[in-house]
């Protein structure tokens, strides 16, 4: 069982995602556990403040270190009420576009952990002391700016969960996508009908499945799959 903890000021964003499809099934089968923590629980004052203006000036607000530190004190594996072994392998990930680019390879490594804690930033950023002193790893899901770390957290949850034995219906699905070098293999696929006839404005077209896939010749089919795949080390 791998346990995910997401710290966010928008816990509801996760609700429908966690309640649907293979993720919901993996939770029901106790293969994964997802806890979403509302950071405001650790916020200050009547408004449960979790952000403030940046020192040195600048636009927008910055998330404060204190509520995040307090949240982590509660949900780290050393807390026995969490039901995790004392020696549980756990990592704290902070999402930021400046972080290490997330890949399938990183997903494999993370899938061996017992617990992954996600800090989902919002506003214009997170006090740098979180990256320096609290997080084990800063992760980016790509070179673009999002509004927060909630989507990145769901992307990591999904990519990592499908690597946990039993989460995908057929374990062969996993094997087929792993190349010899341990990379990631994705190839073009077709299903019925063999020919799909369409009428475009000026002409009729037939979109056909490549003949080789209908040939039953597995050597040739494998060669075709390789030629139409992408391998990422
Ligand atoms: N927060 C904002 N943009 C992000 C990105 N591209 N990856 C991870 N976290 C982010």
Could you characterize what this model shows?
This protein is an alpha/beta fold and 233 residues long. It has two domains: 2-170, 3-Layer(aba) Sandwich (Alpha/beta knot); 188-232, no CATH class. Helices cover 29% and strands 24% of the residues. The protein has nine helices and eleven strands. It has helices spanning 15-18, 21-28, 65-75, 104-110, 128-133, 150-161, 171-176, 211-214, 218-227, and strands at residues 2-8, 32-38, 51-52, 62-63, 90-101, 115-119, 137-140, 184-187, 195-199, 204-208, 229-232. Strands 2-1-6-5-7 form a five-stranded parallel β-sheet, with helices on both faces. A two-stranded antiparallel sheet has the order 3-4. It is elongated, with a radius of gyration of 22 Å. The model has no long low-confidence stretch (mean pLDDT 92). Bound molecules: adenine. The site of adenine (ADE) has 11 residues, from strand 5.
Quick recap of the structure?
It comes from Candidatus Staskawiczbacteria bacterium RIFOXYC1_FULL_38_18. The protein is an alpha/beta fold and 233 residues long.
Break the fold down into its secondary structure elements and pairings.
Blueprint: E1 2-8, H1 15-18, H2 21-28, E2 32-38, E3 51-52, E4 62-63, H3 65-75, E5 90-101, H4 104-110, E6 115-119, H5 128-133, E7 137-140, H6 150-161, H7 171-176, E8 184-187, E9 195-199, E10 204-208, H8 211-214, H9 218-227, E11 229-232
Parallel strand pairs: 1-2, 1-6, 5-6, 5-7
Antiparallel strand pairs: 3-4, 8-11, 9-10
The structure holds adenine (ADE).
């Amino acid at each position: 069982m791998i346990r995910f903890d997401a710290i966010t000021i928008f816990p509801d964003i996760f609700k429908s995602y966690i309640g649907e499809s293979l993720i919901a099934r993996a939770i029901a089968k106790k293969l994964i556990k997802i806890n979403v923590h509302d950071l405001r629980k650790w916020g200050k004052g009547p408004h449960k403040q979790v952000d403030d203006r940046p020192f040195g000036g600048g636009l927008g607000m910055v998330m404060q270190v204190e509520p995040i530190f307090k949240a982590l004190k509660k949900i780290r594996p050393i807390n026995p009420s969490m039901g995790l072994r004392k020696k549980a392998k756990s990592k704290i990930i902070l999402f930021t576009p400046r972080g290490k680019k997330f890949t399938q390879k990183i997903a494999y490594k993370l899938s061996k952990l017992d617990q992954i804690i996600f800090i989902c930033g919002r506003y214009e950023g997170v006090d740098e002391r979180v990256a320096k002193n609290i997080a084990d790893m800063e992760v980016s899901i790509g070179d673009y700016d999002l509004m927060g770390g909630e989507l990145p957290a769901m992307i990591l949850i999904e990519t990592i969960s499908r690597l946990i034995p039993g989460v995908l219906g057929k374990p062969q699905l996993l094997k087929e996508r792993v190349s010899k070098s341990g990379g990631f293999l994705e190839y073009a696929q077709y299903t019925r009908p063999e020919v799909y006839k369409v009428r475009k404005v000026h002409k009729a077209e037939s979109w056909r499945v490549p003949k080789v896939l209908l040939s039953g010749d597995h050597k040739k089919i494998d060669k075709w799959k390789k030629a139409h795949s992408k391998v990422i080390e």
